Fold this sequence. Notes:
The protein is an alpha/beta fold. Helix content is 54%, strand content 7%. A 5-stranded parallel sheet has the order 2-1-3-4-5. α5 links the parallel β3 (81-85) and β4 (109-113). The radius of gyration is 27 Å and the shape is elongated.
Amino acid sequence: MGAVRSPKLALVALALVVGVFAPAMAQVPPGRYAIGDSVMLGARTQLIARGFRVNAEVSRQFRDGPHLVHHLAVTGQLPVDVIVHLGTNGTIESADCDALIRAAGSDRHVFLVTVKVPRWYRQQDNWRLRACARRHVNASIIDWYGDSPITRRGSTPTASTSRRRVGRRTRRSSTGAFPRAEMGLALRNLLFTLVVPGSGAVWIPWWILTRGGDHPVASAWPAVIVIAAGAALYGWCLWLFATIGRGTPGPWDAPRRFVAVGPYRWVRNPIYIAALLVVCGEAWLFLSTSLLVYAVAMAIACHLFVIGYEEPTLGRRFGDEYASYRSSVARWIPRRPRPA
């Protein structure tokens, strides 16, 4: 290609190059920018007084964040530290969180604030926020939910909390020790498994099969798949009760925190469903009518226990959070949760 001979054409070409590449080459300005919804709007005055620029709106969803961050970045309004507190008004999708971090760019650091709203999707959103922060080197978590007292209703994060967190870009390192409390929690869940599901899904079915001197013979081997699915579902639920709820499925050692993630997003009682899958699978494996009758009796007993004791107890313990969850997630038939 020949050289540009006209000075005017050269100036036009230079202007185009500068216009296209100048935003990318410009240095990211210092400062702190807070993006949020109505919860952050309640702390707007405090945040501004402590040096934050605040962009908060009522009813803002997390899915609005990537477009907003991209616009602020390309127009040069987004400083080096970006604090995002969204998720109060609905669920957070992992793809939206990734898009928001990418829109901010690798030369900015994004602080994702966990949500504390008493809704069924709170723990799901916080899980996704933490996972998103782990996927990106320029993202960190401000754990408002984990660091604040657990209440039944949300409250406004203070500016001092955000200020303390911003700038601390290294996560707390683990000591590598296995605390005694964790060991005790594991033993309590193991004991519960041996006594309650062990009795209902193993010892009692075996007694039914062998009473009167019978020697059961396995016949329908595809039933093993059903039994394994039930056992796996139970193990998943038990893990969530221990790691998130900090308790066991037993009503005498109930979780301290409400669990609404994993299978609990789709159905309210997956542990009972897991036990019924195991027993129905055993009835199929041994072609036992007696075990099938026992499974029906177990299903009726579980239903009566849930509606007579478990649901009223959870309602008193977790208040609005459980009421919202109950209105969004079915009791027995798994389905996609409805908005609260």
